[in-house]
Prior knowledge:
Layout: H1 3-23, H2 29-36, H3 40-46, H4 50-75, H5 78-95, H6 97-107, H7 112-135, H8 144-155, H9 163-180
Amino acid sequence: MRADAQRNRDKLVKAASLAFAEHGIDTSLEEIAERAQVGIGTLYRHFPTREHLVEVVYAREVQALCQAADDLARKHPPDVALGLWMQRFVDYIAAKRGMAQSLKLLLASNSEFFAEASGKIPAALQRLIDAAIAHGSIRADIDNSDLMSALSGIYGAPQTPDWRDRSKRLVALLMDGLRSGVKKKSLKPAPPGKE
């Protein structure tokens, strides 16, 4: 793809992501083209159908979340990486409130694409969980479905002015709960006569 064509495609994906987040996937394609400052013909050359555009936007955002899990795991201790990623995930979902209902419909459509893409986020979360368990910094009796259920309560809360601060406190509370169940390694008893 020529450099200018790639730039136009990137602008369209970014504009579509913002428009879908604000108004859902029924946003007019003309509005998306206008936001990207390209003609509607350019949009159709890159994305022949609305479904194709939605798939590309969704895949890009899923990839970014999964990449964030790997980046955080390289830069932070496992439990810290897990907490930071959960906050990023909550922020991501909250920013997509306009897309939430539309994505539920698409995910329920049994599309092979959406089934594969939606499985990547729990897998990224499970990698972070496994690393934190192996490190001994969180309890071992949880999995990604437990945390996804807890996170849905956080990102599903009404978006009041203090929502972001409250979500950070709730993710921190969740992490405190994960850490509190860790069995501390007991010290070996002193040999007889050395007490």
